[in-house]
Specification:
Elements: E1 19-30, H1 34-39, E2 51-54, E3 57-68, E4 71-79, E5 91-94, E6 100-103, E7 128-129, H2 134-144, H3 158-161, H4 167-175, E8 181-188, E9 192-195, H5 208-216, E10 233-234
Antiparallel strand pairs: 1-3, 1-8, 1-10, 2-3, 3-4, 5-6, 5-7, 8-9
Length: 269
């Protein structure tokens, strides 16, 4: 006999360790090359591809590499070199302080039925049509840079960023090297780490309730599994167990149990 045993408390079966929940992270790279990834101990075998196609449309990826004490995580924002339209052909608009809204025309010129400003809260400075993915990018940078309410948060090269030229964003990695941003991380398909993009939090004040509010919004679900209490740690799957079908009495191997089986009964499998 040859049995190389281990204590039951030891973990000997390999697997991918995953994490989920809310955590503070630093940004360590934006759209890095293979060489840049190797320099931060992220081993890849080929140059990263920062374009992807969905339903015949091409998108440019802005990839932020995030880091905390448990590892590195990727936040991907998909952008397009075209302005974002709603299903009712409204444009999404943004301004220099990171506000966004939807309107057929310039929000600053839109009037209601009474002839008053339709968007009285809207600031006109930097008013422009938003590119696909721009709102998510600006919201992330706003939280990462800890921009105060009403302060400027805009990029000079946004048209270029929409095409994948992210030099202006990359420059922030060094400038904001001491900053942290709070994110929700989940697990997809039991192995892939994914970062929630519908809300990004600040370290102070730590408003985790705003993540809950975003998750409960009709447009805010997270397409990944995450620890139900949102507490950061090793991921524990929240998948619902499926109850086995009841056994039919007329099956030739089924015991006489009125369609149910007790744990103690010895079944032929």
């Amino acid at each position: 006999m040859a049995i190389q045993s281990n204590a039951s408390t030891e973990e000997v079966v390999g697997g991918i360790k995953t994490f989920s929940g809310l955590t503070n992270v630093k940004v360590i790279a934006v759209n890095p090359t293979m060489e840049e990834l190797h320099a931060i101990d992220i081993n890849v075998k080929q140059e990263p591809n920062y374009t992807v196609e969905f339903s015949g449309e091409e998108y440019n990826k802005v990839v932020f590499w995030l880091n905390n004490e448990d590892g590195n995580f990727k936040l991907e924002i998909l952008m397009q070199n075209k302005h974002k339209l709603s299903s009712t052909n409204k444009n999404q608009w943004m301004n220099s302080i990171g506000q966004s809204t939807w309107s057929h025309g310039e929000p600053s010129k839109e009037l209601n039925e009474e002839g008053e400003a339709k968007y009285p809260w809207w600031k006109t400075e930097g008013e422009r049509k938003a590119y696909t993915g721009e709102e998510t990018l600006i919201n992330f940078v706003k939280a990462w840079a800890n921009v105060a309410s009403g302060d400027e948060v805009t990029f000079d090269t946004m048209p270029a960023i929409a095409t994948g030229a992210v030099a202006e964003i990359k420059a922030l990695v060094k400038e904001l090297s001491s900053n942290e941003v709070r994110v929700l991380i989940g697990v997809k398909d039991s192995r892939y780490q994914q970062v929630y993009t519908k809300y990004f939090g600040r370290v102070k004040p730590q408003r985790d309730d705003l993540f809950v509010k975003a998750l409960n919004d009709p447009y805010g679900p997270f397409n990944a599994d995450f620890n139900a209490d949102l507490v950061w740690g090793t991921h524990i799957s929240t998948a619902t167990l499926v109850t086995p079908d009841t056994i039919e009495e007329n099956e030739d191997w089924a015991p006489k149990t009125n369609g149910t089986v007790k744990e103690t009964e010895d079944l032929p499998f």
